[in-house]
Amino acid sequence: MIKRYSRPQMAAIWELQNRYQKWLDIEILATEAQAKLGNIPAGALTEIKEKAAFDVERALEIEKEVRHDVIALLTSVKEHVGEAARYVHFGLTSSDVVDTGLSVQMKEAAEIIIKDVKELLTVLKKKAFEYKDLPVMGRTHTVHADIMPFGQKLAIWFFEMKRNLKRLEEAKETISYGKLSGATGSYTNIDPLVEKYVCDKLGLKIAEASSQILQRDRHAEFMNALAITACSLEKFATEIRHLQRTEVAEASEPFKEKQKGSSAMPHKRNPIISERICGLARVIRTNALAAMEDVALWHERDISHSSVERIIMPDSTILLDYILSQFTKIIEGLVVYPANMEANIEKSKGIFFSQRVLLALVSKGVTREDAYIIVQSSAMAAMDGDLTFEQALEQNPKAGVLSKEELEKIFDISYYLVRSKIIFERLEKAN
């Protein structure tokens, strides 16, 4: 478990105490069901429910000898319950308990992450509207392209996180399944009614068919939903890192009052949280690959998936919970520099109006091929010389079909924000 990034609620899900408690809860529910079927004396059930307990350290001590964690837990429980403990684990196999317990843990973890995503969505939507009228230079291939509203970047992120929310909710449903169907999933020594009783009490659905285990395509889907969400966060954080570059300086993550950026250079304000998000997203993606490797197991099961899941499930959910909370704080405290945005727009000398000029020339009867050459040559002259793009066009006789008044009308930045309003109308309607 990556303790440095653990937030208490998420970390608690994966603590050994909680893992064992989930197992014991399942065992007790199964004994209740068996008692209802008349397979366990009512008095034994009462004794089990009154006395059932375990000690983590004692269970670990036993495990060193028996080399089996479920048996170790059952032995610890027997030390508390006494003779009636012989009815605990009646007709079950270990994976009935372990896999069903893991489903509950994943479901609980998913609920926290879904809550995190909803909190981020609220912040993104608010910030998108805050900057819906702020012009910023859009860039493709890292080069100046068209003017766009800065809020559009945040709107894009909002809708991407909406898709991630849907994926996470679907993945939560996929992993919310349990099984108590015995050693090969055939219910040889356990009535299916026990499975139904336990799963109903835990809020899980019943796997339609299982081997000794729940099939790992479910877990792979869950892990990939986490990984895609992490990919989005890395994408957003990378954009902030670029915008925080000294040469761009259009936006930055918040920098606290007593924060220091460098041991050697006191002037430094580094995007350390964004960089951390990018790094940790790589871990989550790698873990998703490990989950997909776990899908193919031998026959009705082997144990090659078990050791992997004990690492990747806690680590990935803990890390995603952490980076979601950190990115939400970044957006809440995002520092925006409108003056620098304006200065960066001015650096382009107006060449971003090239498409408008191209279309205007075509509308005047110039062929698209000729218009392209006229606009490109004027733009290059502006970039390589001391003229603005507008001045270069005025000096280009081939662009003479456009009057000075027409050119002035074309070179109006507000034009670029008119139709983008539809994006924010869609954002307003989004839940």
Structure characterization notes:
This protein has helices spanning 8-14, 16-36, 42-51, 56-66, 69-81, 94-130, 150-175, 192-202, 217-243, 272-293, 304-332, 338-347, 354-363, 368-384, 389-394, 404-410, 415-418, 421-429; strands at 135-140, 143-149, 177-178, 205-206, 251-252, 335-336. With 431 residues, the chain is mainly α. The chain has 2 domains: 93-127 and 148-341, Up-down Bundle (Fumarase C, Chain A, domain 2); 348-429, Orthogonal Bundle (Ribonucleotide Reductase Protein R1, domain 1), CATH 1.10.40.30. The strands form 3 sheets. The protein has a two-stranded antiparallel sheet. It starts with 7 loop residues before the first helix and ends with a helix. The mean pLDDT is 95.
Structural classification: mainly alpha
What count of domains describes the coordinates? 2
Strand percentage, roughly?
Answer: under 5%
Determine the fraction of residues in helical runs and give it as a percent range.
Answer: 55-70%
Sequence-ordered SSE layout with sheet pairings:
Elements: H1 8-14, H2 16-36, H3 42-51, H4 56-66, H5 69-81, H6 94-130, E1 135-140, E2 143-149, H7 150-175, E3 177-178, H8 192-202, E4 205-206, H9 217-243, E5 251-252, H10 272-293, H11 304-332, E6 335-336, H12 338-347, H13 354-363, H14 368-384, H15 389-394, H16 404-410, H17 415-418, H18 421-429
Parallel strand pairs: 3-4
Antiparallel strand pairs: 1-2, 5-6
Helix pairs in contact: 1-6, 1-11, 2-3, 2-6, 2-8, 4-5, 6-7, 6-11, 7-9, 9-10, 9-11, 10-11, 13-14
